[in-house]
Amino acid sequence: MSNRVINWFRYASPQTFYPLAGKLIPWFWALAAIFGVAGLSIGFLLAPTDAQQGEGYRIIFLHVPASWMSMFIYLVMAFWAGTGLAFNTRLSGMMASALAPTGALFAFLSLWTGALWGKPMWGAWWVWDARLTSELILLFLYIGFIALQAAIDDPRRADKAGAILALVGVVNIPIIYFSVKWWNTLHQGASVSLTKAPSMAAMMLWGMLLCALACWMYSIAVALMRVRTIMLERERHTDWVRALLGERE
Amino acid sequence: MLVLIRAVIGRDLRLAMRRQADIVAATFFFIIVVSLFPLGVGPDADQLRKLAPGVLWVAALLATMLSLPRLFADDHRDGTLEQLALAPQPLGLIVFGKVIAHWLVAGLPLVLLAPVLGIQFDLANDALAVLTLSLLIGTPALSGIGAIGAALTLGVRGGGVLLSLLVLPLYVPVLIFGAGAVDATVSGLGPQAHLSLLGALALGGVFFAPWPTAAALRIALE
Amino acid sequence: MHWNSLGDFLAMGNHGLYVWGSVAVMALLMVAEPMLLRRGRKKLVARLKRQLRAERSEARAASEPLTTTRRSHG
Amino acid sequence: MLEASKLECVRGERRLFAGVSFRLDGGEMLYLQGRNGSGKTSLLRMLCGMTPAASGEIRWRGKPIRKLGEEFRSELCYLGHQNAIKEELTPLENLLSAARLAQEALDEDSALDALEQVGLHGREDLACRYLSQGQKRRAALARLVHEKRALWVLDEPYVALDTAAVDLVARLIGAHLQRGGLTVLTTHQSVAVPAGAVRELWLGTEEAGDARHALTEC
């Protein structure tokens, strides 16, 4: 048991994690490409037309994975933030900061694809649909997190402050989602929903899952890339970074 | 415990009384923002009635935001925050006292002004009453949640703007239930559901928010 | 295969603009992000190497006369 | 009673000191010296438990202060660089509210007495914003007159004070040490304290980033 804990902490040290991440990144890229090609070919080539929404529904193969990822990444970010606060490991804070921009990217993509889907379906680029509105607020939360970390010079303090914000955010997200939904039903907003409308044929579901997996692999690859950069920057005075840089000369 | 909380509230209220300009400024900000809206959207009474809850609530959020940066900044600057952090009680309790004091100074005036400003928007009596009640229940949550943001941005570059960026998204549920309560009254649905949810938020904001706030303050003091 | 021709595929049942607009932006951003990261990393590595070299040469330059003065004092 | 072992302080990218260890018992004073930026204030803040040490441990009565928390803070009196004086309040109000927040019993008579001792007689009811720098410092130091907590951590207590006030503070520290209290202080003025054993600790920075420190007993 104790052996295992030590092992985990060994991998949690930037020095060992850095080369490990470097080795893993190409694999995640390959997986992302495979899942992406498979998911998109099912979604765009094989899946039948939706009776209600025509071909426009194919946007869900992009929109739904992007929305899932944006929410999921926030959870993962909060998880890293929490472990960072609890165990005071350097890696945790770096992981949280590495994930935030990718999460924000997916939140933005979710809004973008949602708007492009909304125009033909609802006749408007933007509708105050509960999901879209929550997604917008999620994007604000990401931006707040990134801005807070950018504004604090000392990386350790930035990590801790960001961690508190991420945890407060994660407690608030369900409340925000619930309140927006409640608000939306009262005001009788959009009745067609992007995720519910097409009767999910098995093939569509497979396409969507594969696309989501591709996004997942992509996120891991990008987060690992970013965390490696953050590590170099923050640990530039340590011996291992010096050795690494010296080697490459 | 109660003695301590009372001492914190007493101190902060006394300080606020010695520096009344701050309270007055935030209160007038609220009045002016609310009064500008009819000038922007026109004097049509029907339209104003519809807009009133949202306008008053958004103005209340902004007025609260205005007074938040100073919640801890003054104590931080003159070193009293260090003393509070070193006091032999949980810092969360002290923050709790400060949140209550902030509400008394920044939130309560908004509640008292709301019925008067509501009249400008031609609200009916029952809607006025619910508006005031919703502000009374909801503004403590604004102080509580806002304290987290104030602590996180303490001593940070461009703290004021950053504070609004962090806190305003978290205010969304309060805004929805607060303004929704008035809407529900106007449309005849009854405000009970909204008000009880708002009450839950306020309880959460006032009793749970001081702990992350205290953690953020300790980080700022490192 | 669901489509009869490439034209059909591109038209997406008159929703081509919306569908391809989504695909294009998503693809663009998802390609741009790793590329920007790569570039940022390269810049960082170059900068850190520069700093390291500067430090080393400074240390070399500083260490020589310093030891002699110490010797003369001792 | 107060033990520090192998403390390390890192500020930003600079390591201010490392390997700082000392032990302080009842009736002893630690006189912390060093150049500007050598980490004196950081070390004091570490001793208070405000700044976590990059490595090393601080123990109070044998237990790490991290674990003691409130128990440790109830025996600690910290006087920082800043006076912790509210400009809007009078010296009397400042003193009373500080005591109340620290949950110390301080009645108005003792507070007035303390203010008189630090030479603020007649200014008890004047808002602190009208006081001079030295008077503000005196108002802050008035806390020490009736302070019974065991560990005093004072950051530059003599700054901005005239000689009479410096003597008074030295007397207060002496009386505190005689009661068996502990004091850690930094100062650039060397002031003799009438009673108690004095230890000195030098914090110095070298180019290599290592701290040179020496512990001498007088």
From TrEMBL, chain A:
<keyword id="KW-0201">Cytochrome c-type biogenesis</keyword>
<dbReference type="InterPro" id="IPR002541">
    <property type="entry name" value="Cyt_c_assembly"/>
</dbReference>
<feature type="transmembrane region" description="Helical">
    <location>
        <begin position="27"/>
        <end position="47"/>
    </location>
</feature>
<protein>
    <recommendedName>
        <fullName>Heme exporter protein C</fullName>
    </recommendedName>
</protein>
<keyword id="KW-1003">Cell membrane</keyword>
<dbReference type="InterPro" id="IPR045062">
    <property type="entry name" value="Cyt_c_biogenesis_CcsA/CcmC"/>
</dbReference>
<dbReference type="Pfam" id="PF01578">
    <property type="entry name" value="Cytochrom_C_asm"/>
</dbReference>
<dbReference type="GO" id="GO:0017004">
    <property type="term" value="P:cytochrome complex assembly"/>
</dbReference>
<dbReference type="GO" id="GO:0020037">
    <property type="term" value="F:heme binding"/>
</dbReference>
<dbReference type="GO" id="GO:0015232">
    <property type="term" value="F:heme transmembrane transporter activity"/>
</dbReference>
<keyword id="KW-0813">Transport</keyword>
<dbReference type="GO" id="GO:0005886">
    <property type="term" value="C:plasma membrane"/>
</dbReference>
UniProtKB/TrEMBL annotation, chain B:
<feature type="transmembrane region" description="Helical">
    <location>
        <begin position="161"/>
        <end position="182"/>
    </location>
</feature>
<keyword id="KW-1003">Cell membrane</keyword>
<dbReference type="Pfam" id="PF03379">
    <property type="entry name" value="CcmB"/>
</dbReference>
<keyword id="KW-0813">Transport</keyword>
<dbReference type="InterPro" id="IPR003544">
    <property type="entry name" value="Cyt_c_biogenesis_CcmB"/>
</dbReference>
<dbReference type="GO" id="GO:0017004">
    <property type="term" value="P:cytochrome complex assembly"/>
</dbReference>
<keyword id="KW-0997">Cell inner membrane</keyword>
<feature type="transmembrane region" description="Helical">
    <location>
        <begin position="51"/>
        <end position="72"/>
    </location>
</feature>
<feature type="transmembrane region" description="Helical">
    <location>
        <begin position="127"/>
        <end position="154"/>
    </location>
</feature>
<protein>
    <recommendedName>
        <fullName>Heme exporter protein B</fullName>
    </recommendedName>
</protein>
<keyword id="KW-0812">Transmembrane</keyword>
<dbReference type="GO" id="GO:0005886">
    <property type="term" value="C:plasma membrane"/>
</dbReference>
From TrEMBL, chain C:
<dbReference type="GO" id="GO:1903607">
    <property type="term" value="P:cytochrome c biosynthetic process"/>
</dbReference>
<dbReference type="GO" id="GO:0015886">
    <property type="term" value="P:heme transport"/>
</dbReference>
<comment type="function">
    <text>Required for the export of heme to the periplasm for the biogenesis of c-type cytochromes.</text>
</comment>
<feature type="compositionally biased region" description="Polar residues">
    <location>
        <begin position="65"/>
        <end position="74"/>
    </location>
</feature>
<keyword id="KW-0812">Transmembrane</keyword>
<keyword id="KW-0201">Cytochrome c-type biogenesis</keyword>
<keyword id="KW-0813">Transport</keyword>
<dbReference type="GO" id="GO:0005886">
    <property type="term" value="C:plasma membrane"/>
</dbReference>
<dbReference type="Pfam" id="PF04995">
    <property type="entry name" value="CcmD"/>
</dbReference>
<dbReference type="InterPro" id="IPR052075">
    <property type="entry name" value="Heme_exporter_D"/>
</dbReference>
<dbReference type="InterPro" id="IPR007078">
    <property type="entry name" value="Haem_export_protD_CcmD"/>
</dbReference>
<keyword id="KW-1003">Cell membrane</keyword>
TrEMBL record, chain D:
<dbReference type="InterPro" id="IPR003439">
    <property type="entry name" value="ABC_transporter-like_ATP-bd"/>
</dbReference>
<dbReference type="Pfam" id="PF00005">
    <property type="entry name" value="ABC_tran"/>
</dbReference>
<keyword id="KW-0201">Cytochrome c-type biogenesis</keyword>
<dbReference type="InterPro" id="IPR017871">
    <property type="entry name" value="ABC_transporter-like_CS"/>
</dbReference>
<dbReference type="InterPro" id="IPR003593">
    <property type="entry name" value="AAA+_ATPase"/>
</dbReference>
<dbReference type="GO" id="GO:0022857">
    <property type="term" value="F:transmembrane transporter activity"/>
</dbReference>
<keyword id="KW-0547">Nucleotide-binding</keyword>
<keyword id="KW-1278">Translocase</keyword>
<protein>
    <submittedName>
        <fullName>Heme exporter protein CcmA</fullName>
    </submittedName>
</protein>
<keyword id="KW-0813">Transport</keyword>
<dbReference type="InterPro" id="IPR027417">
    <property type="entry name" value="P-loop_NTPase"/>
</dbReference>
<keyword id="KW-0472">Membrane</keyword>
